């Protein structure tokens, strides 16, 4: 079989104009694994409410971070693809879960090069039904409908992979070198608490309390909250951080349901109020910088901190197309290509 690789990230609008943002948000938020309510309710919430108000505000946010050559998330994912391609002998394609760079086009590109065994890499360190699961489900639907003769294997969540933790820790250490900071905040994209309960394969473990995520359970294979806290714990252990000098929080909530706590904006506010003058922030749920890191954290987050009396606010970039991260992905690709993994 001829092997090939498909990297999949979230996606961005085609432009930061409200009409393109509306189209993108419509596709994204109508995904039943993102807004996971019955179709009639989702249609009412998304088409009746969100799409009438949010695209204008989101477009304004996108305009603040948009680059000459496009959306940072897309440009950085393309750089990652190009650099991985320089390191491996298999064709590497890039697709997005939402927007015009579809998974179908990505698979087609590989099939056109003769590929019939695809290694699918969802570009998310932690599993979530709104990210990894929706990619895997859609890829399988596309395979069955259009490419029944190919196989797809996928890379599982790699949040606790020791090589990944080393690459992430080295990046954090490098960006903090010489910086005077008192607290490092690990800010992860949030999800509604309901998503955590839905993904609990034991149906009884995830209480979303003080201890469930620290108590061993098979539920953790699909518990986004556990996987985020584990990244923080493993990096802190690796870098020898003292207790109290770092913490985790969740950003980017939408709607009125309870989302994972503590919220990033409130945490930044609290740190400022408590007299922290210099803080740093890292966003390990994202492998590529995007709207959520460049605008919500680096711009809005910094503003909140300064309003609370803070001085230096250091944002650590995502791994993007850094050489150690490219090398690690190339290593995983070569391991897959020379072994016999299970299909999705
Ligand atoms: C890192 C993983 C992500 C999870 C988990 C996730 C869940 C999730 N997101 C929304 C709603 C929105 N997210 C938006 C942007 C956005 N989200 C992620 C990643 C995760 N989302 C990224 C990388 C981005 C940036 C995309 C870019 O183009 O740069 C947006 C759009 C922007 C906005 O209007 O705020 C929305 C909306 C939900 C509802 C959700 C879980 C249920
Ligand atoms: Fe999101
Ligand atoms: Fe948990």
Automatic annotation (TrEMBL):
* Catalyzed reactions: heme b + 2 H(+) = protoporphyrin IX + Fe(2+); Fe-coproporphyrin III + 2 H(+) = coproporphyrin III + Fe(2+)
- Tell me which UniProt keywords the record has, alphabetically: Cytoplasm, Heme biosynthesis, Iron, Lyase, Metal-binding, Porphyrin biosynthesis
Asked if the record carries the keyword Electron transport, the reply is no
| E.C. code | 4.98.1.1
InterPro entries found in the cross-reference section: Ferrochelatase, Ferrochelatase_C, Ferrochelatase_N
Going by the entry's taxonomy, the superkingdom of the source organism is recorded as: Bacteria
Which amino acid positions bind Fe(2+), per UniProt? 189, 292
Describe which pathway this protein belongs to, using the record's wording.
Porphyrin-containing compound metabolism; protoheme biosynthesis; protoheme from protoporphyrin-IX: step 1/1
Q: Does the record bear Iron in its keywords?
A: yes
Question: Which EC main class describes this enzyme?
Answer: lyase
- Where located? Cytoplasm
**UniProt-listed NCBIfam families:** hemH (TIGR00109)
Chain's role: Catalyzes the ferrous insertion into protoporphyrin IX.
Q: Which PANTHER family match?
A: FERROCHELATASE, FERROCHELATASE, MITOCHONDRIAL
Family stated for the protein in its record:
Belongs to the ferrochelatase family.
Question: Cross-referenced HAMAP family, in alphabetical order?
Answer: Ferrochelatase (MF_00323)
Name the UniProt record assigns to this protein: Ferrochelatase
Which source organism?
A: Bizionia hallyeonensis
């Amino acid at each position: 079989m001829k092997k090939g690789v498909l990297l999949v990230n979230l996606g961005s609008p085609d432009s930061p104009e409200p009409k393109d943002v509306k189209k993108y948000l419509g596709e994204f938020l109508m995904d039943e694994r993102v807004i996971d309510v019955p179709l009639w309710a989702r249609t009412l919430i998304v088409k009746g409410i969100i799409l009438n108000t949010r695209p204008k505000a989101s477009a304004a946010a996108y305009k603040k971070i948009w680059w000459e050559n496009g959306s940072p998330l897309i440009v950085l994912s393309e750089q990652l693809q190009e650099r991985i391609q320089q390191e491996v002998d298999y064709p590497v394609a890039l697709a997005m879960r939402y927007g015009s760079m579809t998974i179908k086009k990505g698979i087609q590109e590989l099939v056109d090069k003769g590929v019939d065994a695809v290694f699918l890499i969802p570009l998310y360190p932690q599993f979530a039904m709104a990210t990894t699961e929706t990619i895997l489900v859609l890829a399988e639907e596309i395979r069955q409908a259009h490419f029944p003769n190919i196989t797809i294997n996928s890379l599982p969540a790699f949040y606790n992979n020791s090589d990944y933790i080393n690459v992430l820790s080295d990046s954090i250490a490098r960006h903090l070198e010489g910086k005077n900071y008192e607290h490092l905040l690990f800010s992860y994209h949030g999800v509604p608490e309901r998503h955590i309960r839905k993904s609990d394969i034991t149906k009884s473990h995830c209480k979303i309390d003080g201890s469930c995520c620290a108590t061993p359970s098979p539920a953790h294979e699909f518990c986004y909250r556990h996987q985020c806290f584990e990244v923080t714990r493993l990096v802190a252990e690796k870098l020898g951080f003292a207790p109290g000098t770092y913490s985790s929080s969740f950003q980017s909530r939408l709607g009125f349901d309870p989302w994972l706590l503590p919220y990033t904006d409130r945490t930044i506010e609290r740190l400022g109020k408590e007299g922290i003058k210099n803080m740093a922030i890292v966003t390990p749920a994202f492998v590529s910088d995007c709207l959520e890191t460049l605008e919500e954290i680096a711009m809005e987050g910094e503003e909140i901190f300064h309003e609370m009396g803070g001085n230096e606010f250091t944002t650590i970039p995502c791994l993007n197309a850094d050489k150690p991260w490219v090398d690690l992905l190339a290593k995983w690709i070569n391991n897959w290509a020379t072994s016999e993994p299970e299909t999705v």
